[in-house]
Design goal:
Layout: H1 8-19, H2 22-43, H3 70-92, H4 109-116, H5 122-138, E1 153-154, E2 160-161, H6 171-187
Helix pairs in contact: 2-3, 3-4, 3-5, 3-6
Length: 198
Amino acid sequence: MMDHPETEEQLAAAHAAVTRDWREWERKSLALRRAALLLHEQINREWVPGLYLSEAKESDPERESEPDLNAPRTMLNGMAIESLIKGIWVRHHDPFDAKGKYLLGHHKPIELLRDLGIFFHEVEEELLIRLESYVIWAGKYPTAMRVEHMLPQQSSSGMMVYPAFSMHRTDEETFRTLFIRLRSILDDEAGSLGEPGK
């Protein structure tokens, strides 16, 4: 973590230093993954109606209904894998171009993996497409800011993937396998990018 710089110049230097440190990306990724797992534990706990409402307010069953934690949990997983992928990028490339423009200010993990030459399985690509939509909107807003974010996307195999409207029972295992593999790529001292499943 950066200290509290006093000037804009110091802040810019601290920002660049942290942005270029792949370990900072890994730490943030692990924190996000842990938060997703903690939220997952809460999904199976009993909901206490009115827990977060002021006692002065009248009871409103709609406002007190149990919130769906799956969307924010999925968003946290998507953010965790995105940070991990960006960490790999930072370990191999400068995140700023020659003019100082930040190159990672987007939510396109598949594009980054392809640029890095990291291979992934079809089922992983489908999951990444869905996770991307949760990071952009489905994990934090009631609907997308733009309709095109809700449209199905075609995977490289030709399959149409509906971004935020389908989750599969195998998603957690697929995510865990991909996360572990990407972390091992990030942690590899030789910096090799690896093959799927290795």
